[in-house]
Write a structure and sequence with these properties.
about 450 residues, 5-stranded antiparallel sheet, about 20% strand, globular
């Protein structure tokens, strides 16, 4: 097994260079990068059930010269193929240990067992026993989530962070603080793991590698419910109102846990500069925005006229319908407090505007409404989806205000600016990942600018 600081051997480097760019979580799509080993650690087996299988966690740097993305790559090495895991095979490797089959760790029970054993757990937390059946959730985009013991009383979902940053990951820090404060709108934390690797300047840094929380069996995410309602034209207003109320409850709990601060002149300038820099980044990253260049520049000129801004606090940072679950026993639950994966960690842990979360949810209602109408040319169908989204958006804001959140309508200009900011992020994301969906955020850009 390798140690931190050892070179990545050529055979494994070739396997990873071919395999990683095909993964949804790969952060360097479209960029030529060199692979650098920044850290490596074996995970100890806890039983003989996986004898002959080695497990290790690699921290790999994707170096493009002016940028270094740091990713976590858990691997297992087996002397025989793992049955039913062809889709998770990284490749085959010959080395000192002989011929080995290399697998993406989260799909191998040997890694899952070792990972659960390595977790740090808060007092009273319980995890499923070693050997409990596990499955990887499909559809994950930025990380890899593993459900362990879906039918077990201590069912747990473990999120393996793929892009790493030094310091406390907010999904660990925030969720633990909310659960400790008695907020029942989040899943209880069962454990987490940390690791160290070499930073860009050669220093040793430490960050979170994974977090485990309770798995809420029988739950349905709000995205699926909203899409199903939008497709049939069924109203979603009452559920949107309840989600708005749950969001306000979480914002109030976040303020209790981490406090609020008045926006200083420097912070106001940072916010305005951030909104402007998002425009520059988006224009440089998405050719489809070229026709909006002049309008976006005029928007940047006007943005300094925003009136007095609300107080700042910790927020979710990437709130949308897919981050909300409906539990038959618990009601609406907010998940995944990691923030936007493309933002630096220092930005995602900074106090921010609660309206940024509101804007993210408003954008999500647009996506749900348009899910079944992408490419639709019938103007009546498109108009109907717009009315559905508008009603859901209004209901969400009403529920948010009724539960004690700051009335979104009091900050209409700021909310529009934050919604545009989110839409520009979406344009870049869709350009890189789902170009057939570009029309959805572009419609929002057009609406806000006009």
């Amino acid at each position: 097994m390798r140690s931190s600081g050892d070179p990545l051997d050529p055979g494994l480097q070739h396997l990873l260079a071919v395999w990683m760019p095909r993964q949804r979580w790969y952060p360097a799509k479209g960029r030529g990068v060199g692979l650098v080993l920044l850290g490596a650690a074996p995970l100890q087996q806890v039983s003989g059930a996986h004898a002959g299988t080695d497990v290790e966690v690699l921290v790999v740097g994707l170096d493009s010269g002016d940028r270094l993305d740091v990713v976590q790559v858990p691997l297992t090495y087996r002397s025989e193929p793992l049955g039913g895991a062809d889709a998770a095979e990284v490749g085959e490797l010959d080395g000192a240990a002989g011929h080995r089959w290399v697998y993406d760790g989260p799909h191998d029970p040997a890694y899952v067992s070792a990972l659960l054993h390595s977790l740090q757990t808060p007092p009273g937390a319980r995890l499923p026993p070693s050997g409990t059946p596990a499955r990887v959730l499909s559809g994950e985009q930025s990380n890899t989530s593993i459900v362990v013991g879906a039918d077990h009383p201590d069912a747990t979902i473990v999120k393996v962070f793929r892009t790493l940053h030094p310091g406390a990951n907010p999904d660990v820090e925030v969720t633990a603080a909310l659960a400790a404060g008695g907020c029942d709108r989040v899943a209880a934390v069962r454990g987490w793991s940390s690791g160290s690797w070499t930073g860009r300047s050669g220093e040793q840094v430490t960050g979170h590698l994974a977090v485990a929380v309770e798995f809420l069996g029988g739950s349905q995410d709000a995205w699926r419910e909203a899409v199903a309602a939008a497709e049939t034209g069924a109203p979603f207003d009452e559920r949107a109102r309840q989600i708005g109320a749950a969001t306000a409850e979480v914002h109030l709990a976040l303020a209790d846990a981490f406090g609020r601060t008045a926006m200083s002149d420097d912070e106001r300038q940072r916010l305005l500069d951030g909104l402007r820099s998002r425009v520059d980044w988006a224009l440089a990253s998405a050719p489809s925005l070229e026709r909006y260049r002049d309008a976006l520049r005029r928007y940047c000129d006007r943005i300094g006229d925003l009136a007095r801004l609300p107080d700042l606090q910790r927020v979710h940072g990437d709130l949308h319908l897919g981050q909300v679950l409906h539990s038959p026993a618990r009601g609406w639950i907010l998940l995944d407090f990691e923030g936007e994966p493309l933002r630096p960690l220092t930005e995602r842990t900074r106090h921010d505007l609660t309206l940024r979360d509101v804007a993210g949810m408003l954008r999500s209602f647009d996506y749900a409404a348009r899910f079944s109408t992408v490419g639709q040319l019938d103007p009546d169908v498109v108009a109907a989806s717009g009315r559905w989204a508008g009603a859901a958006r209004d209901a969400f804001c009403a529920g948010y205000a009724a539960a004690g959140g700051d009335e979104p309508g009091r900050h209409a200009a700021l909310l529009s600016a934050l919604e545009l900011d989110k839409a520009l992020y979406e344009v870049v994301y869709e350009t890189r990942n789902r170009p057939q969906w570009l029309e959805v955020p572009l419609h929002a850009v057009d609406r806000v600018l006009s």
